[in-house]
Amino acid sequence: MESLVFIIPIAFVLLFVLWAIGTYNGLVSRRNEAKNAWSQIDVQLKRRYELIPNLVEVAKGFMKHERETLEAVIRARQTCVDLSKAGNIGELAKAEGILSTSLRGLMAVSESYPDLKANQNMLKLQEELTSTENRVGFARQAYNDAVMRLNNGIEQFPGSLIAGFGNFKQLEFFEVESAEERKVVKVSF
Questions:
Q1: Is 87 left (phi over 0), alpha (psi -120 to 50) or beta?
Q2: Contact, 81 vs 100, CB < 8 A?
Q3: Sign of the C-alpha dihedral, residues 70, 50, 46, 129?
Q4: CB 112 within 8 Å of CB 188
Q5: What backbone torsions phi and psi does residue 83 show, to the nearest 5 degrees?
Q6: Is the peptide bond before 53 cis (omega within 30 degrees of 0)?
Q7: Is pLDDT at 158 greater than 50 in this prediction?
Q8: Which pLDDT tens digit goes with each residue over 71-125?
Q9: Structural domain includes residue 23
Q10: Phi/psi at 169 (nearest 5 deg)?
Q11: Is the pLDDT of residue 185 over 60?
């Protein structure tokens, strides 16, 4: 009977330790899932950033009088590249919205140039850009889902107890700020 008195507290301590380890490992897995999802966004954004100079170069030859529009796209792209390297998700999301808006402006202006609309390079770039925009959208969705799972694990009891000890921080969602930025980028030539 006396040994049972010692076994029960030891069993509770052992169960608590196993629970804490499982919860900690679950939070680590969720954090790594969110990091992986972010890297997928990063890959697609880099692909997008690489397409934009090609798009601008093709358009430059046809759009000699639209320098301001082309420069806005170039500036917005560079801002996104810089913020992508810095890792500030909130600022990058805002800059991505500005880039999408400037690309929309480029596409709208390019409608005035029939030769540009018929150019095979431009058509290929348009197709690649559309495909990349779709991939970015899917990657953002996967990232936001992973962030939600991590943030839920950090906030919900009993995971919140372990999150404080394990130095787990909530991550930011990759969200579009304004209604204008929420519109689908229409790319047509």
A1: left
A2: no
A3: positive
A4: no
A5: -70, -30
A6: no
A7: yes
A8: 888 899 999 998 888 877 888 888 888 888 888 888 877 777 777 767 777 778 8
A9: yes
A10: -115, 145
A11: no
CA distance 100 to 5: 67
CB-based contact 150:180 (threshold 8 Å): no
CB-CB neighbours of 1 under 10 Å = 4
Does 136 map to a domain? yes
Query: Which residue type is seen at 172?
Result: E
Tokens coding 45: 């954004």
What pLDDT, on a 0 to 100 scale, did the predictor assign at position 94? Answer: 87
Question: Is 187 domain-assigned?
Answer: no
CATH number of the domain within which 69 lies: 1.20.1440.20
Contacts of 10 (CB under 8 A, 6+ apart): none
User: Structural domain of residue 60, as residue ranges?
Assistant: 2-182
Number of domains composing the chain: 1
CA dist list (Å): 54 to 48, 62, 126, 178, 186: 10, 13, 11, 28, 18
From CA 130, how far away is CA 145, in angstroms rounded? 23
Q: From the DSSP assignment, how many helices (H) and strands (E) are in the chain? A: 7, 0
Please give the model's pTM, rounded to 2 decimal places.
0.71
Which residue's entry shows tokens 């500030």?
88
Please name the amino acid found at residue 135: R
Q: Considering the domain boundaries, does residue 189 fall inside one?
A: no
CA dihedral over 123, 125, 131, 133, signed as positive or negative: negative
